[in-house]
Amino acid sequence: MAIRENFSYTDMDEWLNEKRVTEIECLVPDLTGVARGKILPRGKFTQERGMRIPEAVLGMTVTGNSPTDDPAYDRAISLTDRDMILKADPGTITMVPWATDPTAQVIHDCYFADGRLVDFAPRSVLRKVLKLYEDKGWKPVVAPELEFYLTAKISDPDLPLRAPVGRSGRAETSRQVYSIDAVNEFDPLFEDIYDYCDLMGLDVDTLIHEIGAGQMEINFLHGEPLGLADKVFFFKRTLREAALKHNMYATFMAKPMAGEPGSAMHIHQSIVDAKSGWNIFSNEDGSPSALFKHYIGGLQRYMPCALAIVAPYVNSYRRLVRHTAAPINIQWGVDNRTVGFRVPESGIQDRRVENRIIGSDANPYLALAVTLACGYLGMTEGLDPTEITHGSAYEMKYELPQGLPEALGLLRKEEKLRTVLGERFIDVYAAIKDLEHQEFMTVISPWEREHLLLHV
């Protein structure tokens, strides 16, 4: 569901006038999920609805660098540094709650000069997958659950992160999973977050304390994928701003603290028939349908090849290790949190599968696109899942790539994913992640200095 349903450009102009907006943040989610774009005065936004920024903005690493000497990347992104044309999506217009002056923010789609969507932009990739479902008469319904850590403000990146100080004047020193009092330690922050989310129409549901010290989880109400991706994109930005206001950091790193669990973006997903609204994962007698099992089969078959998209950084693979509240394989089970794909206990219309592999550091548009793409391939190819797992999948073997280079190798080779996600998207994305890994390899870690300096 969009933030503002069926909003036209005329509706957006009237809304901006009603709110007496003076500035507008024109946002484009890049491949890392970072908000790029421009800030325009209200009058300029009205005149320049075809704003332009360089195409290369979508082809940068998280450090702001671009690949060189990569033929596939060079074929995808113009060597002349040409512009993209940005067009606002009126349904995403909302206020910037932390701004001093009345300021709005709106997400833009990226177009080539000939009017085609830029196919490697994250929103375009998700739209491409959703079109496949539309052509089948299916509508995906998703509900993300986003974990994150609150930490003390530490400006030196060489120092380890630690839990922030709450209202009591003390930081958490033990795990407070599901503790209400531990959440209440940060009441002033969460009051701001809920106020901001209400003002922006983000439809957040429940807030809980997770396993780690200072680790929280926010759940979103279920809805259509593009609107939910927009809300997660906005929420990440909103949470970071609110945390800074309260003199702490909020981080969506997959594994920000040694010795603590990592942070995931669990995505619940079901598919309904577009005409009848019936959940196609269920038969009329209430039993699981063949399509439901094929969907899980698709997740099992293709998610290992797609892992580089949902575990996008070197740090992401520190989360996916045994006995750390994260999956290490592609097993599935009913109400089993040790597997990669969990089927919650539910009613006939609520039957769904939860993908627990995705990290909170993933771009929400790409995370939704790829998990839906895997399920789509499973249903259209009639793939069967493995036998259900009843015990702990943590004791079973690794079935996921254990590092970014291995994951990128699988992603590049899988032709079916190249077809459903887009050839140029895969080429651009893989080139960017290769460069990020090269940049990481130039840094020497404290572990290397501690254990190798005088011992080898």
TrEMBL record:
<keyword id="KW-0460">Magnesium</keyword>
<feature type="domain" description="GS catalytic">
    <location>
        <begin position="122"/>
        <end position="456"/>
    </location>
</feature>
<comment type="similarity">
    <text>Belongs to the glutamine synthetase family.</text>
</comment>
<dbReference type="Pfam" id="PF00120">
    <property type="entry name" value="Gln-synt_C"/>
</dbReference>
<dbReference type="GO" id="GO:0006542">
    <property type="term" value="P:glutamine biosynthetic process"/>
</dbReference>
<dbReference type="GO" id="GO:0004356">
    <property type="term" value="F:glutamine synthetase activity"/>
</dbReference>
<keyword id="KW-0436">Ligase</keyword>
<protein>
    <submittedName>
        <fullName>Glutamine synthetase</fullName>
    </submittedName>
</protein>
<dbReference type="InterPro" id="IPR027303">
    <property type="entry name" value="Gln_synth_gly_rich_site"/>
</dbReference>
<dbReference type="InterPro" id="IPR014746">
    <property type="entry name" value="Gln_synth/guanido_kin_cat_dom"/>
</dbReference>
<keyword id="KW-0067">ATP-binding</keyword>
<keyword id="KW-0547">Nucleotide-binding</keyword>
<dbReference type="GO" id="GO:0005524">
    <property type="term" value="F:ATP binding"/>
</dbReference>
<dbReference type="InterPro" id="IPR036651">
    <property type="entry name" value="Gln_synt_N_sf"/>
</dbReference>
<dbReference type="InterPro" id="IPR008146">
    <property type="entry name" value="Gln_synth_cat_dom"/>
</dbReference>
<dbReference type="GO" id="GO:0006598">
    <property type="term" value="P:polyamine catabolic process"/>
</dbReference>
